[in-house]
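Handover notes (outgoing to incoming on-call)

Open items:
1. tRNA dimethylallyltransferase: sequence verified, structure written out, both below. Nothing else pending on this one.
2. Nothing else urgent.
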Amino acid sequence: MNSNKTLIVVAGPTAVGKTAAAIKLAKHYNTVILSADSRQFFKEMSIGTAKPSPDELAAAKHYFIDSHSITENFNVGDFETEGLKLLDELFKVHDVVILAGGSGLYIKAICEGFDNLPTVEPEIRERLNIELTEKGVAHLQQKLAVADPEYYSEVDIYNPQRLIRALEVFEGTGKPFSSYRTASTRQRPFNIVKIGLNLPREQLYNRINERVDVMIAEGLVKEAENLIPYREVNALKTVGYNELFDYFDDKTDMHTAIELIKQHTRQFAKRQLTWFNKDKEIVWANPCTDNLVELSDRLLSQ
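tRNA dimethylallyltransferase structure tokens:
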């Protein structure tokens, strides 16, 4: 291992302050940031994914933001391949690189890689897609809660593609999806330190609610409206867009849609924390009260 190269992971739930923390660290180490937010890759989705502002993007070089289109098939395996290749290049120039985001699966891909999931008969996926159309996402949520409670507790349950992927593995193999994610860690040619950001729950939830209000003020409704032709794309089956598509379909009113975005985002943050709390390598910090530069320097010197 080339022990003088280090990847600093900045993880945590949505709205906790990862972008500001990553930029502070990037400036301190005179380095760059890789985004590990599975929705910020897509250039068509900006307001609803809380991308860094133009000023923030100018303050530190970011990779994997606006890097792909929602019409491209870009999954976690692609991210692992492209991310490791990019890190190989970046570590020729920098001793430290920052990986920041809230997508636990994508962080895991870069830090550890995963098991090869079994191939499953396509008929199973087709049947699950029919069930989704006929019975709705709540039906798939209930099935997954019974089949694989561990994965259910941490997956984004409002993303039907994630639910279907887990259910097809379970139905095709008889083993829960979560049992395939216990791969022996692949050794990476760099050191990894992980900083997790969290806040008292009430404070975090207030920040989430305020962020949703800002998104609405900045034009999230118009952004979602422009994306209606692409609504079946996997990238858009996510909090912030699902609820507005229901509003456009007259299934709900605007006030209810906004309240549901807030509620579902709070639930999503809880699931992110469930995921990250299982990672015993994470050192937790409060971004409002802790000195993250001092913490990071200390972790790097260990």
